[in-house]
Amino acid sequence: MKETGVRNGAYGADKFGFKDLAAVHWNLDAPQLYEHSIAAREATVVQGGPICAETGVHTGRSPKDKHTVVDAATENTMWWDGNRKLTQANFQLLYEDFIAHARGKTLYAQDLYGGADPKYRIKTRVFTELAWHSLFIRQLLIRPVAPELEDFVPEFTIVDLPSFKADPKRHGVRTDTIIAIDFTRKIILIGNSSYAGEMKKSVFTALNFYLPAQGVMPMHCSANVGHDGDVALFFGLSGTGKTTLSADPNRVLIGDDEHGWGPDGVFNFEGGCYAKCIRLSEEAEPEIYAATNRFGAVLENVIFDPATRVCDFDDETKTENTRSAYPLEFMPKASRTGRAGQPKNIIFLTADAFGVMPPIAKLTPAQAMYHFLSGYTAKVAGTEKGLVGVEPEFSTCFAAPFLPRPPAEYGNLLRTLIARHKVDCWLVNSGWTGGIYGVGRRMPIKATRALVTGALDGSLRNASYRTDPYFGFSVPTSVPGVEPHLLYPMKTWKDKAAFDETARKLVRMFQENFVKYEKHVDADVRAAAPEVRIAAE
Description:
Structural class: alpha/beta
């Protein structure tokens, strides 16, 4: 077997069980992986230097095809309402079939860290069939320095073989696409999907399982820190603005997607960013635009001119979920350590497809717990396979597809940390105003940025507030630089009766969704539920 690259010679692919491989390329860097990707015609180099690949039918994650092994470690600790079961025997069959499928193939291996805090990081080895997948995960996770690779022994292994198709009857799974997790053996198997994001989210899922038991809160959020050391967290699902709003030129970026919150403060799980790049522009998002249009960035499903190789970031022909992956150091003001102190502000981001939520609201601790467990947002076309248009969703903890443990476990841990560190909490609607999706317009990004800045710099503390008649939280009545009517959502609608009807409908959706959490929370959290308190004026 041919082997290249820096590696621990005493702990090779054979330790995982691989046999008769043609070659393994260990820990190759960007130039080498570019060469392999292009030679295999996996991807194309486009203007500016990034590499661009297509992911085929899977332009987003396949959450319904993720299965977890039921064993002594998971049977009574997993949130089975949100996770599919897989027997140990069926996982063993999958493992054996993955090993057999890999025979004669060339694999790429990356030895990486999940977690910037050495106390809580997990050593992760990722075997991929595609060279560009190896570059993707190398850019997204934390890269050890060369001497660390020479004695690297993985604690967790991911095998990513897009050409492998599961057999539902043989393997006891839903379709021929599979993401199978064995938390006891610390193995994840990914088959029949070329969407690279499955790998990074698998690491996130693993940390979501292991860290709460150590008193560390794993979070689907971006994070940045100001000049005075004030840390801000931005929770939200894909398309709500986590990456955009945390890329603030006046603050240092800790990370854009996944973090832990422990005794020493906040730490990034990753060493890179995974930005949505549909309608990406240099004017609106200069830092992300520059990071995307350079050598080393990995683009997924972005349309480009075949002659000039110039990308058209406005073209959603393949998917709305076009993506750019790049190392954190591509951002001009990024943390080199991926670590910072205790948070001062938490912002829950939602893309309200109904267009009735205000652009910002101040939350009490009980309201923060309520909205964290509710996780209301809107899924955007392409984020998940088969999704068309925009669909409202309650994704608990803003991370339902990645939660191995019951949501209340994360919610209670977050509430404890908020109280301990006296954190201010805000709800920001980056979605629609003036009508439902398709009628209204997207909330102006300048207004959202101004409101977030006001929350973080403390100026919103001096604003006057009103109590929203539908949701009960506090909304500022005026903010310098923000169109006054945006703070009164009803005023942005032409049809006031339609607004009232739509707002009441959304309130009922919140109430109905939260029923499953009521017995797990205190009375003050139940009382924080939206309720139409007065007739709309």
